[in-house]
Amino acid sequence: MPHVPLTGRVALVTGAGTRLGAAIARALAAAGADLAVHYATSGAGAEAVVAEARSLGRRAIALQADLYDREALAGLARAALDWSSGRLDVLVHNAANFDRVVPDELSADAWDRAMALNATAPYLLTLELAPALRERRGAIVALACISAERPWKNYIPYSVSKAALAHLVRGLAVGLAPDVRVNGVAPGTVLPPSSYDEATLARLRERIPLRRIGEAGDIARAVVFLAENDFITGQILAVDGGVSVA
Fold it and tell me: Phi and psi dihedrals of 167, rounded to 5?
């Protein structure tokens, strides 16, 4: 039989009904984990991820929650633990606000929305689930972004919120040690909007040392790696084709 390091473990992935979150959830299931698949509005996508996980022999459930709502966030934690009989081994903070806000349109609301979902929600959800993670000597992986180091002009609230998330990863790695490991993955250009034409995509590729745009699987494999390796904590792994060092 193949070696499956995450067999029997339970993972909760936020924002797992679509795009990167769905790819991460599928990769965790393929590696052996049972899944709590959180979604906000992508119910059909979440159910598809659940069905795929179950086809692999995993236990899986889709759980809806608005992570801007603190009561709903606490309810998500309770629902996940109720489903898993109190067990949690891996928590992936993937749900994010990626609003484009040009400098002339910066507002208090844009700031509040970015910080609430990208930094505050992971912090509060971690607090809710920390006892269960401690009991299992579990792992947390947060999806940061390379813009945390170099803010993007038209995504200032987003970039700042991801910088806060990266610092949260480092802080929690110390605060939850030695029982819980906390790491992050910082994607580069991955899954660009479908509206981008070939000329735009070519310009993006030209800026990347490896000369290709990232795929969801590149990020998902990094998350699985960090979930499995029990001697890594407090690290932010850039998965960006080399952009961050170019």
Answer: -70, -35
Residue 3: per-residue pLDDT: 52
- 154-192 residue pLDDT tens: 999 999 999 999 999 999 999 999 999 999 999 999 998
Q: Output the pLDDT for position 4.
A: 56
Domain range for residue 206?
10-240
Number of domains in the chain: 1
Helix (H) or strand (E) holding 239: strand 236-239
* Residue 117 placed within a domain: yes
* DSSP classification of residue 203: H
77 vs 113: CA distance, rounded Å = 21
Of residues 123, 155, 158, 196, which has the active-site annotation? 158
158 among known catalytic residues:
yes
Adjacent-strand bridge partners of 63 = 38
Closest CA to 104 of 154, 61, 57, 54: 154
pTM for this prediction: 0.96
Residue 69 contacts residue 91 (beta carbons within 8 Å): no
